[in-house]
Specification:
It is a single chain. The chain has about 190 residues and is α/β, with parallel strands linked by helices. It has a single domain, classed as 3-Layer(aba) Sandwich (Rossmann fold). Helix content is about 30%, strand content about 30%. A seven-stranded mixed β-sheet has the order 3-2-1-4-5-7-6, with helices on both faces. Helix 1 packs parallel to helix 2. It is globular. The protein binds S-adenosylmethionine. The site of S-adenosylmethionine (SAM) has 26 residues, from helix 1, helix 2 and strand 2.
Length: about 190
């Protein structure tokens, strides 16, 4: 499904589309939080697919403006706020939390919050998993993207340690990289 999305902060790419399909399949009747919303693609798709309530946040104020404008032009209601991960997210429990994070390893010199996931490509993902539990409903699900270029083994180990079961439910090869769509639930 193509959305009416104007030129955005992080233009929806292959990773966005991979996640969008899974969001559309799961959204109906759920309360949803889209962390790192960028253009708002996941949040808007969730709302169009019949989500009960949708919240979206991004650390970048330009992304917040962009997602709000795109929600308006797609005629959907999304609560978009500026937040570093969960910092400003209201203390609610969400049925589905989605995060297409900055997931590429970076050398610290060419960092860009749109794609730089820290030295190992997993730092932002691990911060997210350390903070997410209070916002997740019982039997809630988390969808997130990670890359074959990141330190996957370490990431999987930490997720297990903090109580999450991870299944890879989608993948896509993009030149020399493979991106994965993870579904995490609390065990
Ligand atoms: C790969 S883009 C994904 C954008 C959009 N969700 C999509 O699927 O196309 C990552 C987004 O995460 C945001 N971001 C990076 N670090 C963040 C943080 N600590 N808290 C919230 N958002 C963050 C970036 O500004 C960017 O919009």
């Amino acid at each position: 499904m193509e959305l009416n999305v104007k030129e955005s902060v992080y233009e929806p790419m292959e990773d966005s589309k991979l996640m969008q399909k899974a969001v559309q399949l799961r959204a109906k009747g759920k309360s949803i939080l889209d962390v790192g919303t960028g253009s708002g693609i996941q949040a808007i798709s969730a709302s169009l697919a019949g989500a009960k309530e949708v919240w979206a946040c991004d650390i970048n104020p330009e992304a917040v403006k962009c997602a709000k404008a795109n929600a308006t032009s797609n005629k959907v209601e999304v609560n978009v706020i500026q937040s570093n991960l969960f910092e400003n997210v209201p203390k609610k429990k969400f049925d589905l939390i989605v995060f297409n994070p900055p997931y590429l390893p970076s050398d610290g010199k060419h960092d860009d919050i749109r794609w730089s996931g820290g030295y190992e490509g997993i730092e932002v993902i691990l911060d997210f998993f350390e903070q997410v539990k209070p916002f997740l409903a019982e039997k809630g699900e988390i969808l997130f993207i990670f890359s074959s270029h990141a330190k996957q083994d370490k990431m999987k180990k930490v997720l297990k340690q903090v109580g999450f079961n991870l299944n890879v439910i989608g993948k896509k090869r993009i030149f020399f990289e493979e991106i994965y769509l993870g579904l995490a639930i609390l065990v």
